[in-house]
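Inverse folding, one chain.
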């Protein structure tokens, strides 16, 4: 993959910015059988989120090439606009990705810009690898989408795992929550999104939400 990234310096810098690995949380028991009302209550609360922001870390693992790359991310979401800033603790901001209903734009630390009609198209052109960005803002908060199958849940009604077909590939999603956390709206501590060729791990260090 690195040879392709020479076309666009920001992604090369991002993918070389290793050093913040994300350990998988301990196993958490889940089941297909759960109180339906708890599931509905949690999903209804998530549906009321008009905007949120998250700061944390993200890792991309390309299985066939055995490449593991990680970086820090600050993600701000609104229904018609998203902004993601990627950074490294020593190198500072590496890139900014903005996504609206009209287009997606990636700008590197030197001001070089590239745009496409959608974030998946832009990322596939730059990396090049398919990332299911069109649903990430929902999966990141633990929200169900209509395409999800084989869902399992935790006892409090939050999503534990699911599978989905995206870009003609079978993807598996797993959600992890802080067991000791007490909150009116549980949000994930980690989300893992995995296909036969790619694994995306996102760790949320801080959430901010508004209704």
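Residues assigned per position:
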């Amino acid at each position: 993959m690195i040879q392709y990234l020479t076309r666009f310096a920001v992604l090369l810098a991002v993918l070389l910015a290793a050093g913040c690995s994300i350990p998988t949380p301990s196993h958490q028991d889940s089941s297909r059988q759960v109180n339906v009302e708890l599931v509905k209550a949690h999903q209804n609360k998530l549906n009321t989120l008009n905007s949120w922001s998250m700061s944390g870390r993200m890792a991309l693992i390309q299985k066939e090439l055995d490449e593991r790359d990680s970086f820090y991310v600050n993600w701000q979401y609104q229904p018609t606009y998203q902004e993601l800033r990627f950074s490294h603790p020593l190198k500072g901001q590496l890139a900014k990705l903005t996504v609206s209903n009209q287009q997606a734009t990636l700008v590197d630390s030197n001001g070089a810009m590239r745009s496409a009609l959608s974030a998946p198209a832009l990322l596939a052109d730059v990396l090049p690898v398919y990332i299911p960005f069109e649903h990430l803002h929902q999966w990141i908060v633990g929200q169900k989408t209509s395409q999800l199958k084989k869902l399992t849940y935790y006892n409090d009604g939050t999503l534990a795992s699911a599978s989905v077909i995206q870009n003609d590939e079978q993807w598996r999603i797993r959600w992890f929550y802080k067991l000791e956390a007490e909150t009116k709206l549980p949000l994930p501590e980690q989300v893992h999104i995995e296909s036969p060729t790619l694994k995306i791990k996102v760790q949320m260090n801080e959430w901010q939400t508004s209704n």
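The longest helix spans residues 36-47. Residues 1-10, 12-20 have pLDDT under 50 and may be disordered.
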